[in-house]
Amino acid sequence: MQCRNRCLAEFLTSVLFLVFSAAPLAASPVWRLSDADGRVDYIAATMHLLQADDYPLPQGFNQAYREATELVFETDLYAMQDDEFARRLQQQGFYPAGTTLQQVLDEPSYALLADYARRQGMDMAAVAGMKVGLLLANISLHELQQRGLSSTGVDLHFLKRALVDKKAVYSLESLEQQIDYVVNMGQGYESELVSQSLAELAQLDEQLETLRTAWRSGDLETLDRLLNRELKEKYPPLYRRLLLHRNAEWLPLLRSQLARPGVSLVLVGAAHLPGEDGLLRQLQAAGWHIEQLP
Questions:
Q1: Using one digit for the tens of pLDDT, what is the confidence trace for 123-133?
Q2: φ, ψ of residue 39 in degrees (nearest 5)
Q3: pLDDT single digits (tens) 8-35
Q4: Among the residues of the chain, which ranges form H helices?
Q5: What is the pLDDT of residue 136?
């Protein structure tokens, strides 16, 4: 369980299901940002878990990384590889003593979860006190890994390259914020979240291929539809917590980062870029010219 928790770090923001107009297939999920003074930076949509045949990455990543002098990630990925992070995630990811999933969930949702556990060979006794957010994160990760997705996604790939190439690395959030997003996800509507998440797992194979194709081509419309719209409609509090509020908190940090000397490459989960609330639209409104790379 502890090893699995460490792997969560690479896909926390797209943990449950695992950004202007549809893009042509020749495009990439990387955008050039330029301001009125001619300064150039880059922002890219990442997938936190990938399959082996997703490499090499779309060409736009290579151009942006080559020109970048510093990289900006969602959080401190290097620290997330440490056992201490796994320990803290495990420690905060359980209910207080005496509180169990069976008490938190309504009867139908718990029955669905118990049936899923039986079919997957999962020991319900071992997770009886685990918070819904962390449990669903573990289930999602397990399902994705069964389909050949590795924890070495775009973010970790470029972190490793940046360390070798001695490029500066920054983050937008603290480890504590990341842990809080996971362990407290769905708080107050745990039963609905469990039921919907397990239902969506049945469609995971089809969704993954569509998502992979949309991500590689930077198809903002499809990414928005797959990652954001249903979440916004069915779980507005979760949408606000995981996407809307985080984007709003990141924007001033990004504006400050993009004003620094050098060229920044910002790497954030694909869900954060599309749509009216996405970072691309907000950066454009703040004065940046945005151009998608081939």
A1: 999 999 999 99
A2: -70, 140
A3: 443 343 443 333 333 334 599 999 999 9
A4: 2-7, 59-67, 77-80, 83-92, 101-104, 107-120, 132-146, 154-165, 175-183, 190-201, 204-216, 220-224, 230-234, 236-239, 245-257, 279-285
A5: 94
